[in-house]
Every structure is written in structure tokens, then in C-alpha cells.
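Deliverable D4.2, example record:
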Amino acid sequence: MMDLQRIYLTGYRGTGKSTVGKQLANLLGTRCLDLDRRIEASAGKSIKTLFDEGGEELFRQWEHDCLREVASAEVETVPLVVALGGGAILREQNRQLIKQSGVCVWLQSSVETIAQRILGRGYARAAKLNQPKSAHRPALTDLDPVQEIVQLLKVRDPLYDEVSGSTARTDRQSPRQVALEIFAWYHDLSTSH
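Output generated by the structure prediction step:
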């Protein structure tokens, strides 16, 4: 039987997981847990500091440990909306946790929209200058920012697809419209089980 206690939101950075998650939680009368904030609270350090101290591997271990806690914890308000980090689906163990402990929606946007959201309006100029993206989330490759998005999506898209029961476009609708779409999908799912 499908576990409906958690609604995971997955997708690349900048697709609106945290923003849509808060809107969805409001519609459901529940709360939204942002996994990146949970990692920082548990580690007592920023994500950037985790990367600086131990690279992506240290961060991914913290991510896995926090996701395991969230997936196994007793949920006080059902459903719990969980905004995942964009790379949380990279580990097979994480994908299994997501599939076993809830349902998942893949938030999708075009490369151009993602770049604009991550880098701001001057993203084309920043890409040409190969400027660092965000102080909060470090670059994951040596590629320019737009090429990094393209490259990582090639790897991640099949994994997002693997864990997700539904998709929602976030570059064509407001966060509230996306949340309403997910709300309707979840309602249909919960009434049919």
C-alpha cells in the first residue's frame, strides 16, 4: 500500500521546491520541512561550510542521514511536505527512502528559467564570465553555470523520474498555481487509496 504521510518535492535547484512547498503546506493545513535547512540545523554549519570542509561527499552524507531521519520519524501532521535538495535523489538509498515513505512530485523548469532564478537577471553575463553562482550552494562542476545545469540535468532527470509519481511545471505558473495542482493530485490519490 502506498504511504501518503509525506509529499516530497524534488527537482533541480531553482525549480521552486521550498516556495511551492510552503504554499502546498498552507493548502493542506500542515507544515513544510526544507531538507537543506534541516541539514544546516543538524550539522550546525552552512551547506557551503560543509562543502568547504569535506566536499560534496560530506554534504551528501549529511543529506542522507537527515533524509533517513525525516523518512522514519513519526509524522505529527499528515501529510508532511518535504522540500528535497536538488541532488538528494543521487544516492540509491535516498531514492528508496523517498519511494517507501511517501509520494513525490518532480518540479520542472526550463534551463533558462533555472539559470535566471539561480543567477538572477544577469545570468547570461555571469555565465560568460564564469562567475560563481551562489554563496549558499557551491558549484558542483568546473563548467560555466548554464552548462553545469544542462550537464547535471542529463544525469538527474532519469532519477527524478524514477522517484516521482507526478510532475509539475514551475516556469509556466505561479507557486500558488503549482501548489494547487499538486494539492488536487494528492487529493485524488488519497481518496482513491
